[in-house]
Every structure is written in C-alpha cells, then in structure tokens.
Amino acid sequence: MLRRLMTVAALVALAMTAGQGTPRAQAQDCPRGQLDARYCDRNGDLVADAPTNPRELVDPSVLIFAYTPVEDPAVYRTVWQPFMDHLARETGKRVQFFSVQSNAAQIEAMRAGRLHVAGFNTGSNPLAVNCAGFVPFAMMASNTGAFGYEMEIIVPASSTAQRIEDLRGRTIAFTSETSNSGFKAPSALLASQFNMRAGRDFTAAFSGRHDNSILGVANRDYDAAAIANSVLTRMVARNVVRPDQLRTIFRSQSFPTTGYGHAHNLSPALAEKVRAAFFNFNWTGTALATEFGKSQPPAEKFIPITYREHWGVVRQIDAALEVSYACR
Q1: Which PANTHER family would you find in this protein's record (predicted)?
Q2: Structural domain span for residue 125
C-alpha cells in the first residue's frame, strides 16, 4: 500500500515527462548504487558524479532556482530574492525563481534539465538524488551550528484525542507521499508502533502542503495532521494560526531540514560558484533571516552537509517503508 502510494501517486507525472527538455543520457557501465542508470557514483558518496563527457555539462545563461513547496510559493519568492541577487552576483548569471506546486514537479524539473539550483525538502531528497541527479551540499543552521526539526502530530485544541491511539476511526491529514514529516515518518510510526494503517484504522487525507494541513486542523477540517514543526513555528510567528488553536500529541526525534544543492551536470566552475554563494551569503537584515530566523533553532546561515551522513535516518525510514527510488 505505502509503496504503491509512493511509486504511483508521486511518480506518475515524472514517468510521463522524464527526459523532456534534454536528451536522455546513455546508461554507462559504472558504479551507481541506487542511482538511476543515467548517473554514476564512482567515488561512493551516494550522489551523482559530474559527467565525464564535456558535451553533457551545462553552463546556462539563466539559473533556475526553486524552493521546496512546503508552503505557499508566493510567500517565498520575495523571501529568497536577496539570496538570488547574491547568487547572480557570484555566478555572473541571471537567476529566476521557479514556483513549484509539488515535490514531484520539482523533481521532474531537475531531471528534465529545467531546474539548476534548489532546496528539496527532507523526504524528497533521496528521490531527487537518485532520480534527478540532485547534489545536496548545504543546510540551514543557527550560528552555533544547531539544525533540525521534528515531526509532530497535531489535533485541534478542543479535540478529545490525547494519544495517537485515540485517532483510530478518524481522519489524519498528510502532505504528500514524498514528504518525510508529512507522510513517511508518521506512516512508519503509526504502522510499527501502533499497528495503525490507512484505510483500515484511520482515513488518510492529503493536503498537498504543511501549511494546508496546519490550517485544516486549526479549522477542524481534519481530526489530526502530521506536520513539520518548523513550518508551524513560522506560521505562528506570522500570525497565520494561533498556538491555542492546536495541540501536539506526538513529537518525533530531530530530522535534517531542507537540503540545498545543484544539478549534477552543472559545469564544475559554475557548480563551485554556486556552492560558494551559499556559504558566503550574508544573512544580516535580509528577508531570509527574518523568515527562517523564526524557526527553532533559528536558521542564521548555511552549513556544509553530505547526503551520505545527514540523510541516513531518512533513508532508514524509506527502507522500512520499502520506498522505491526507481524513475520508471
């Protein structure tokens, strides 16, 4: 059931359009692990290597940037503008914001060559890495290096539900099948610790985004929702919802936040400039600092990360759910 949800619902659009916009790379005889056949991983870091054929490298005049669709994309176009201006100065390229409406659309865009730099949410990082050649290298953190968020299961403040077991027979909202905190982690929790499965013990609804799920619980459209508490913190800070409208009945361990990176086939010189732009960006007084500084811990800078190390717990959850990273 869960595997079908992931591979069918999340990837059907991707399967229909993958490869459009750029020629499909020929499969190579090289180490690749779980990567799609068009990629190689000769150094064993679990992400796609840059192509060895110079003709397969890209050096676009316009860099397309997208932020994961955890909330309304319109909010984040303005928030990210100072960084995009900085990225343009560092690379000498024009930078354009791409408003994506779903994780699947964002992955599809990078796989097809229409997206060059992006932040993919925690849960969709493994699929972006293996299916679209995404190379994550940065994550937001506090000035002390603290980072992460927790998955919470929330209910309306007036709900009679006090424990997860009280959600039997009720409607639980998830965001999308590619979301770690919005679907994969809570699904694994409900099944392994509480023997609760969608369709049998509760009704699953999909809201599309964390803000939709949070507003749905606040307005009692859903009996409960699985959400990223970093999104909830920012919504409370913006007065979109009030803390007294919601109550948390479960909080998970900490997970890595959105991973930022570039397409594997950027020219090495351009890829290096993109990386440098993240790490030398001055957050002080920017809209980015105002928005993401509301998180706990506050996001105040970008720190270097590796997919192998920082996404290990997410890959373990995927393995428990038998999630496939196949791009067919």
Answers
A1: PHOSPHONATES-BINDING PERIPLASMIC PROTEIN
A2: 2-145+256-320
Q: Using the 3D structure, point to which of 255, 277, 307 is the last residue of a domain.
A: 255
Q: What are the tens digits of pLDDT across the range 27-77? A: 678 999 999 999 999 999 999 999 999 999 999 999 999 999 877 777 789
Q: In terms of domains, do 111 and 27 share one?
A: yes
Asked if residue 123 and residue 22 are part of one domain, the reply reads yes
Per-residue pLDDT of 91-131, as tens digits, reads 999 999 999 988 899 999 999 999 999 999 999 999 999 99
